Structure formats: C-alpha cells, structure tokens
Amino acid sequence: MVDTKQEIERKYEATAEEAGPSGRPDLPGLPELTGAGPVASVVSKGVTTLDATYYDTPGRRLLADGITLRRRTGGDDAGWHLKLPVGPDTREEIHAPLGDEVPSEMAALLRSRVRRAPLLPLAHLRSERDRKHLVDADGTVLAEVSVDRVTARRLAPEESEPVRWTEVEVELAEDRGHDQRLLDAVEVRLGEGGLHRAESPSKLAKALAETEAEAGATAVEAGGAKPGRPAKPGKTATTAQQARQGAKAPRRPLGAGDVVLDYVRRQLDALVELDPAVRRDVPDSVHRMRVATRRLRSAFRSYRTVLDRTVTDPIGDELKWLAGELGVERDREVLTARLENRLAELPDDLRLGPVEARLCHWSQARRDSAREIVLGALDSDRYLTLLDTLDALVADPPLRPAAAKPAGPVAAKAVLRDYERLAARMATALETAPGPDRDITVHQARKAAKRVRYAAETARPALGKPAKKFARRMEALQDVLGEHQDSVVAREALRVLATQAHGAGESDFTFGLLYGREEARAADSERELPGAWAKASRPKHRAALGA
284: alpha, beta or left, given left = phi > 0 and alpha = psi -120 to 50? Predict the structure, then answer.
C-alpha cells in the first residue's frame, strides 16, 4: 500500500563552509526567521539521523528524468520514497512501508522509464537533520526548515570515498499549498545569512557530481542523453526546440525534419511521463495519454514525406493498439459523465425507478473491466517494446529527402493534403441522409478533422500563428462533429440500460426519455454542421499557411 503527498521545497547551500576538527563541515547557524512573512516563531524539533540508499538503473534513467527512489530509515517516515517531478520546487512524493525489495507498486510506476533494466543501489547518504518548524501567530505550522549535514558515498559502478556537505531545506506544510510568498520571504532571510539556492536539484545529484572519478561520467546527471533516448530540451536541443525556447544558438533555417522530430519527441515524453499517472488513476491522465498516442500516429501519417513510412507504419499500428486499449477507459469516463449530466437535468418527476443506481452499477462494471485492460496493456511486453521502438526512432530517425528541406513549405503542404482529405469526407457526410449511414460518415469526418488539427499543431514552429489559428478552427469543427458522435454512443448505451431496466421489472421510461433527447441533440449538431464547415473551410485560412 502506498501513500502520496505533494512536496514543495527549496534547497540552499552556504557560500562558504569551514571544516571542523573531524574534517566535516560545521553546522552553519540559521539567520533569524521570525518575522519572515507570517512566521511568528521558530520551534526546534531536535536532531534526527536519516540513513538512505538510492536506487537507479545502471544507465541512471531515473536521475535523467529528475526522479529519485530511495529506501530510508530514521525519522518519522521510514520506508521507500519515490519522488516524481511536478513543477518548479514541487514533487509528488509516494511512500511505501519499509522492506528489503523495491515495492511492486513503485516498480510499476517506474516501468515506462526503467523498462527491463534492473534497479540497483546507486548511492548511500547519511544525514544528521536539525529540524525547525516555522509557526504563525495561531500556532499553525507553516513550513519546516532542516539543516542537513550529509555524508555520501557512490555505490556504483564502484564504491567511492565519502564526501560531506551541509545544506538547508525549506518545505511547506502540506496544507499550505503553493505559498510562494512564504517561500520567498524565507529565502530573503536565508540570503541575508549567506545562503543561496543549491546548484544540484537533489542530494543524490550532488553526491554523484562530487564522487565521479571522471568528468565525463557525469553526462547523465548533467542532462545528457539517456540510453536509447534523445537529450532533454535545453541541453542538446534541436533547432526547433531552440526556436521555441528562445535559446541563443547559431541560427539555421528550420528543416522539416527538425519540426517533425521535435513534435515526435514531445509526444513520446508525454507517453512516458503520463504512464505513472494512468497507473495511479489520476483524473484525465488516460485521456492525455491517449491523445499523445494519436498525435504520434497522426504525425507519422501526415508527414510521410519526412519520415519513411515503411518504418513508421508498423509503429503506427502499435500506437493504434495502445490508443484502443486506453480508449476503453476513456470512452467509459466520457459516456458516464454525459449520462450523469443529462440525468441531473431532468426534474424529479421524470426520473422513474432506480435510474441513478442502475447507471452507477453499469458504469462501475465497465470501469473495473476497463482498468484491467489499461493496466494489462501498460504491463505488457508489447507496450515496452513500443516505447523502445519509439526511442530508437528518435535516436536514429528514418529521414526522407524532404526532411532536409525548409520546414515551412513542407509543413504547409502536409497540412493542406490532410485538409483535402477532410473536405472529401465532409462532402460525403453532408450529402448523406440522416440515419446510421450519416452517423458513420460524420464520425469519419471527425477523425479527419482531428488529423488536420494535429498536423497544424506539428507545423506551428515553422508556420507560426497561421498554423495555430488553423488548428483552432479544426478543433472547433471537431467539437461539432464530436458532439454528434457522443450522442450516437450515448444512445446505444441508453438502449442497453433501458433493456436491462425492463428485464429487471423496472421502469424504462427515463432511459427512453434521455434517448429521445440525445436524438434531438444529434439533429441539432447536424443542422449546425454546414455552418461550422463553412467557417472552418474559408479559402483565406488556407492561404494564410503560405503554401
């Protein structure tokens, strides 16, 4: 069983330290923190000894992603700790009980990064922690300030001599949220006392940096490429990344390969980073992961003049499989929310029988099955192979001649080629008489609109605002098409629910009423569709792409 909390903290180190008789840094005195923002008093909590062993793969894949995994004794939270980055100064901290082996729940959360590599002891850190609570006038704990005297040894690939340093951590109390002003006020006081932000993001990173025998061995800690993965943005960034981040680097014209590969890398990173959230059932995580798979597949199909489709088509098939496995849960989420909202709109006298209970039971049964499918996919060798294959693709991309051409014309041509495909499907949808056949053609048009949108998103670094606006127009059209398709799916579910209710001797009136309302909404979408298409398909929008 694991517990989760959000950790918001900053680390500081002294500008100068003096060695004591033992050769280890003396504990520096903290400046006065009373009066820093709402801090009314500082309460000492004593000194604790913490003993931690940190784990990683031989290639240090966790460290490269800013993740730490440790087994720690001492203090009031002994056990296994997994820390996942969330944002500036913020990490998700997951705890599991103390044991000899990495907890299976944590191993699962790391699978998208670790793959099949073993998790081995990487470093040992022993800290003497002097803890102090920052308290407001009402006695509420605002934050904890810890002065840590650290002794660290690297354990792999070979054991190192110990290194020692002193650092200060300021961690907000759990109920303080993102109290930036409190952290800033404390930081000012620490600065006045000769402390500055620590250069290393974690104790482990500092320990490895100071114990490496050769400077070249610190490449992963410094942000170098992971085995089989491209380097992180901002380190050895592509020209497209530099353009997006405003990096000061020698300029060269954006090549089509730069733009497409940058997009592919970002979607691959999203897949890997969302994996733990999906496993933990974080809201909307399944949806976002499914979108990343679709964006990848769409990029391969839209930019086939840039990337060799003999390589990308088989990968696209695997992405389609993964999107399908994720889609079972996502479709259930969307459908359940829609039916619950529609049911809530009805007055009490039109809700006959145990309709809420039946809907809840129906959704829960589907949820259990969907979660099993999702987790089965993420735990499969097929999924890990897909991630490895995507890593290999971005590390050694199968570029075609168009990849070296200026990105603008290539991207515009790809977007407009997908647009023409959409136009053909829209014409078919608008010409088809209402009924099951139109439902199918509208759904096909929706998928085509989504592909145009993703192609335009990919083209943004090359085409700028026109591509951004084009993508938004396709998204607006997609919303109209999607509302129609959601109504089709909802009607099928309502038919099943009405049949179940009738078979159980319950009233099926309410489900029939909702079915009729969904039919009306589908008709509204069909009436709205010609106008939505006329607005999205204006020639000036395509001309703005500069093709």
Answer: left
In CATH, the architecture of 3-215 is Beta Barrel (2.40)
Say if residue 540 is exposed, middle or buried (CB neighbours under 10 Å; 0-12, 13-18, 19+). exposed
pLDDT attached to residue 333: 85
CA dist 186 and 172 (Å) reads: 11
Work out the number of other CB atoms within 10 angstroms of the CB of residue 158.
8
**Per the structure block, which two tokens stand in for 323?**
């999107």
Cβ neighbourhood burial of 21 (10 Å; 0-12, 13-18, 19+)? exposed
Query: Where are the chain's structural domains?
Result: 3-215, 256-543
Phi (first) and psi of residue 460, to 5 degrees: -55, -45
Instruction: Count the neighbouring beta carbons within 10 Å of the beta carbon of residue 235.
Output: 13
Q: Please say whether the beta carbons of 449 and 460 come within 8 A.
A: no
Q: What is the pLDDT of residues 34-86, one digit of tens each?
A: 999 999 999 999 999 999 999 999 999 999 999 999 999 998 889 999 999 98
φ, ψ for residue 208, nearest 5 deg = -70, -40
- Look up the CATH architecture of domain 256-543: Alpha solenoid (1.40)
Q: What share of the chain is helix, strand, coil (3-state, %, to 5)?
A: 55, 20, 25
The ranges of the chain with pLDDT < 50 are 16-27, 213-249
The pLDDT of residue 547 is 57
pLDDT number for residue 251: 59
Instruction: Kindly state the tokens that stand for 342.
Output: 């529609």
User: Within 13 Å, how many C-alpha atoms sit on residue 447's CB side?
Assistant: 9
Q: What is the rounded distance in angstroms from the CA atom of residue 420 to the CA atom of residue 498?
A: 41
Pair of tokens at residue 161:
């001599």
> How many CB atoms are closer than 10 A to CB 309?
17
* Both tokens assigned to 60: 């240090």
The residue type of 536 is A
Helix (H), strand (E) at residue 338: helix 309-345
Among 443, 413, 387, CA closest to 302: 413
